[in-house]
Design a protein that fits this description.
Layout lengths: L1 H5 L3 H25 L6 H30 L5 H31 L12 H71 L4 H16 L7 E2 H19 L4 E7 L6 E2 L3 H12 L9 E9 L2 E9 L7 H8 L1 H10 L4 E8 L2 E9 L2
Parallel strand pairs: 2-4
Antiparallel strand pairs: 1-3, 4-5, 5-7, 6-7
């Protein structure tokens, strides 16, 4: 039914117009037949059909010629004059062919001594036709507006999907590139641990290819990926880097858009540990309670680092855009800087 009413294919458009014409003719024929005092149904059907041809002809001329010709150019006066002029001319023809015969045979008391073909009847008929055709035009453009509105929503959804994919592609290469570098460094210096790192890298890579493309994943799965990533990164830093991780509450039934928490962790390494030649540290904390999660990522700041909050705010710009799209008005991302430490706190309503 929805396809019949709104589809733009030629067969559906023809079907709609033919169905509309037949329904209009039958309805008005039945109305006239009930008031005709024994007139033949076939004769009334013919007269109603002739009237419908004039009405719909007037409507089609208005919708497909007059309005497209003058409305885009904002020539409203020309549009109105042309619309009424065509209505007047069609009324003259219509009263000459159809209504005079109809009314003279059905309701002769309404016919004057000079018949119906006079200025008074023509103006009245023009008014009636214009009013009905105006209703048709309003219905047509209302339907077109609904179709356009639906198409716009579809385009907005596709744009949002493309935007999310674009934003996601910005950060995926970063951790893959870093992981490959770590693997290379390990294979040169410490071959015994290379196998376990390759396994961890394989899990991270699989996550980035499969899980990261999904709309939602379990919170626990992202935390596992973060654990693998941190393990690989720690090998590069050795004993210099201290990482603490704490999970509080039950997150087993919670689903989240992928790579959100990971982005905060990656940010700790990219703008914190990688620039700290001393003893860098990272603290990760996840709290789950009644469908709400709070993920906090803290990292040390080198003493000589200039404007770390500005740098990391730029680094998390894509994350904010993703959150705005996926969780509008259901998240809070706060960045703060204290003495020698930077904190990123993400609160999400996953209910």
């Amino acid at each position: 039914m929805n396809k019949f009413l709104f589809h733009t294919d030629l067969k559906f458009r023809l079907s709609r117009h033919i169905t509309f014409f037949v329904v209009i003719v039958l309805v008005f024929t039945l109305v006239l037949f009930s008031r005709s005092h024994g007139r033949h149904f076939g004769e009334l059907l013919l007269l109603t059909t002739l009237n419908a041809v004039f009405f719909l002809g007037y409507a089609y001329l208005s919708i497909f010629i007059i309005i497209p010709l003058f409305l885009p150019e904002k020539k409203y006066a020309f549009l109105g004059v042309t619309f009424l002029t065509i209505g007047f001319l069609l009324s003259v023809i219509k009263l000459s062919i159809s209504d005079f015969i109809f009314y003279s045979s059905i309701s002769p008391e309404f016919i004057g001594s000079k018949g119906m073909l006079n200025v008074r009847y023509i103006l009245v008929n023009t008014k009636d036709m214009s009013f009905i055709v105006a209703l048709f035009v309003i219905a047509k453009f209302t339907k077109d507006w609904l179709i356009t509105e639906n198409q716009q929503k579809q385009l907005e959804l596709k744009y949002t999907e493309l935007k999310l994919r674009r934003l996601q592609s910005h950060f995926e290469p970063h951790f893959l590139f870093n992981t490959l570098n770590n693997l290379y460094a390990l294979s040169v210096g410490n071959q015994r641990e290379t196998l376990s790192v390759i396994q961890g890298f394989s899990r991270v890579l699989q996550f980035s290819i499969t899980e990261a493309q999904k709309e939602k994943i379990p919170v626990s799965e992202e935390m596992k990926m973060i654990k693998d990533f941190v393990s690989i990164e720690q090998i590069r830093y050795g004993n210099r880097l201290r990482v603490e991780s704490l999970v509080t509450g039950d997150c087993s039934n919670l689903m989240i858009a992928p790579m959100l928490m990971f982005t905060l962790v990656e940010n700790c390494f990219r703008h914190g540990s990688s620039t700290d030649l001393g003893q860098p540290w990272i603290k990760l904390s996840l709290v789950c309670e009644k469908g709400l999660i709070c993920f906090e990522a803290k990292n040390s700041i080198p003493e000589k680092c200039n404007s770390p909050i500005t740098i990391q705010e730029k680094g998390l710009a894509n994350l904010r855009q993703r959150l705005d799209i996926i969780y509008p008005k259901k998240y809070s991302l706060t960045l703060s800087e204290a003495s020698c430490e930077f904190t990123a706190k993400l609160e999400l309503d996953l209910k």
